[in-house]
Amino acid sequence: MADSLGTMKGSVSMDNLPEFHIVVPARYASQRFPQKLMADLGGKPVLQWVYELSLKAGAKSVTVATDHDVIYQAALDFGASVVMTRDDHENGTERLAEVADKMGWKADEIIVNVQGDEPFLPVALIHSCVAALHRDKEAEMATVACVIDDVTDFFNPNVVKVVCDEMQRALYFSRAPMPWDRDGFINIDREGGKLPADFPALRHIGLYVYRASLLAKYADLPMSPLERWEKLEQLRFLHQGIKVQVALADGLPTHGVDTPEDLEKLRKKLP
After folding, report:
1. Distance between the two ends of the chain, CA-based, in angstroms?
2. If we measure between CA atoms, which residue out of 176, 114, 106, 164 comes closest to residue 139?
3. Average pLDDT of the segment spanning 239-253
4. How sure is the predictor about 29, in pLDDT bands with cuts at 50, 70 and 90?
5. Which of 98, 104, 131, 119 is nearest to 18 (CA)?
6. CA distance linking residue 26 with residue 82, whole number of Å
């Protein structure tokens, strides 16, 4: 089921992919849904689903990164490679950077950040994001986006938008509606309806792929005012002039587990 959702524009053959590592940052606490990674989904914890889909991606290594004993032991119990990290990281990228350092990965190696609460993330998304970074030798990271056609989503601040240049690199990420059609949006209805088919509105999908060299210097990158205002970590990279390649998906993948209601929806999707 999962691989049929959020498929990429064009197929990516494993034969053409470079080697890559997957790290799954796994926090125990969550404000909206405490201990969600340990929640049961079809007889196994959410985190185990994520680990198993990561194995299917054909990565050189798959590592769970956590700072909590419960997550650590659970990962060991279902056979995962797991690394205990510091407990003072502000985000998953910092945790990835610590793992990359501990593993001694070389500067040019590619590391994928797969969120621990995305049990049905399509493997095709991972492959195409890795391929996009591999093709763009000047980019230091890559992410994914899909077309927005719903007007309500376009004006929703919880839906993050991205605008790209002609090389499909990110120019800016924002919660605001962008780009703005100065003439076409004069009388637009913000509730319901569809955007024009040729309007280049893109929704950001939070999958990130990094070169190890970028993770090595991440701790020295200060938070930018843009990141502070928008509450979007990826703006830290753009503010520093780091090139971010954007792979395009044909649709939005299945939503992850942010709340108990999300978990219940996923349970109903199981065979």
Report:
1. 9
2. 164
3. 95
4. confident
5. 131
6. 10
